[in-house]
Amino acid sequence: MSSWRDNILKEFIPNISKLTLVADPDSLLSEEKLSSELRKRGFDLIEFDDSIEFRYAYESKYRSIWDQGLHTDLVVILRVQNSELSNLPYDLLQAGRILSFSLGAIFPNFSYPILDCLEQHVFDALFRAQEDTSPGIMGDNGTKDFILRHIYSIAPELINTEVDLLRSLLRLHYGTIEIPEPLADRLVSLLQNNVTFKEWPLESIVKDSKVFYAFIQERWSIFLDSYDQVEQVMDSPSPYGLQVSGPALLPFEHQDIRIYIDNLFVEGKLSPVEYSKHSVPANSWMSCGIKTASGDTEAIRINRLFSIVTSNLPNAQSRYNEWLSIALQWGELSVLIHNNSDVTLLERFTSLQTEINGIFAGWLTEYYASLINLPPSTPVMVHHIPRFLSRQLESSDTKKIALLVIDGMAFDQWITVKHSLQSQDPTLLFRDSAVFAWIPTLTSVSRQAIFAGKPPIYFPNSIYSTNSEEKLWKQFWQSQGLQKQEIAYRRSLGDENIEDCLEAVINPYKTTVAGMVIDTVDKIMHGMQLGAPGMHNQIAQWCKTGYLKKTLDYLDELGYEVWLTSDHGNIEAVGTGRIAEGSLVDSRGERVRIYPNVELRNQIAASSVGTRLWAPIGLPEDFFPLLADNNTAFIKEGATTVAHGGISIEEVIVPLIKIERIPHR
């Protein structure tokens, strides 16, 4: 079967024109597989977003080559309609050919406003459904119903019972594709026509996965209390004070529901509860959701997570969202392994870790460059975060935003932090997502990219330091229309009196955006002698001080929408020996070395063990990384360390979390 990409790719034949200008209002050329295929054909893609930044890249990298009589296949992408291309600088219009692509041309039978709200992940499935069914011209509701049925496997007219509804919601929220708001509105509207669901808070639990999971979590204890010893559901559960409204008793015992509930507890989306009213057999399907003192539940959960991760393992052709999804599951498994003393489980984990990171390294080599220019409507890389937050300010009721960057925190360590925060305040609600850090995964590269809101190629003068972060942060937000007094920044946080500290930088009446760096985790990492388990232990101890909880409370009281992320993660690594390079290297990391030219980098790599060359994607022109391969480090042979800089899933995929409180009924 043909792909929707084919009609676009046929227009790109190498050596036709040194410059191609593309009107791409729907960001089609940024789709990862299409972008990767264009790069394979020799085309360089660059966005015309900021005219000054574009000129810097265009003049320094391409004009100089053309002036020497050499050829490049440069594609300049503009997020504008074809009619707006005439506003481009004259020299570009003279030098380049012009193309235009749109969703409307690829999916002509569907309503464009509905297509516009979809993530690119679903285009392949939608194109197949369009080819298979040959639908006629559809309006808004027809398009919504078609997409609900063919992309999300939801047929509202077949949802007639509480089991039907719960099964559909579990399938919807357990999946990796989030339902856009117009489709959620349509689904809610259709379900509300059924009187069977009049008590269900459809508006919130259809649209919001975290509220749905909170809804399920509250009712799990009720279900257990209503279960008798012969595993029969009893009627009339005792009254409970519920934060999320709706029916108290749900049909968890139905066979179509059980399989989802089991996975939700295993993957940490639901938390096991204390229960002693009745004796539940260890092999009961309910045991996954019940805390036990014996540790049997933890062992079961570890084995189930191994199975889930192995069965869901992405491959070299997977989409980026599949890697982000597996990172969440891998983080849950990592926490359990690092808090467990079973050597056999650790060996199994290490073997699977080597397999995952081998596949991941190959995938990054193929597709990492295609992530950079993805639209920031849903952040995929850390430099997308500021632009995404800016859109949040523009398009919602959000008036103030705070971004907390916990330097060096890996995804599994975030889970340790989250569990601690949840125990301190059960009303906290965490919307977990993930993004890719910049490679090499160094603070001066990836953290600066967060605060600059742009790739490192645009801050070459400060690439080895973080001292320009405040300036870059303020420059970004001023470019979005904020005044200097509306922007706050503070770093080196983590152990001081948070109120006194933040009062000095945040004006509750004027500060609209606040960027803050908490570097406690990074300090723990660089002083760590006890490996990954020691990291989790010390992070848990820091959380018990209440510092982070107090920070969240303070920002919540001032009315800030709070987002939390990290610039890079870390991995426990084993030394393969130090590299003998004298003063020739620009940066001596334990997991990465930076060289000023490719010849020197390649020469050192040829004479060293366990290294991997990394192309300087999105990096300054004199910045050539040499990475430690697998879980190795450039330290004394056989020594262990916890470090960062490389391309393991633990270092590259980091949390992006929206922190809220569970809404009251």
From TrEMBL:
It holds the Pfam family PglZ. It comes from the Bacteria. This is BREX-3 system phosphatase PglZ. The gene is pglZ.
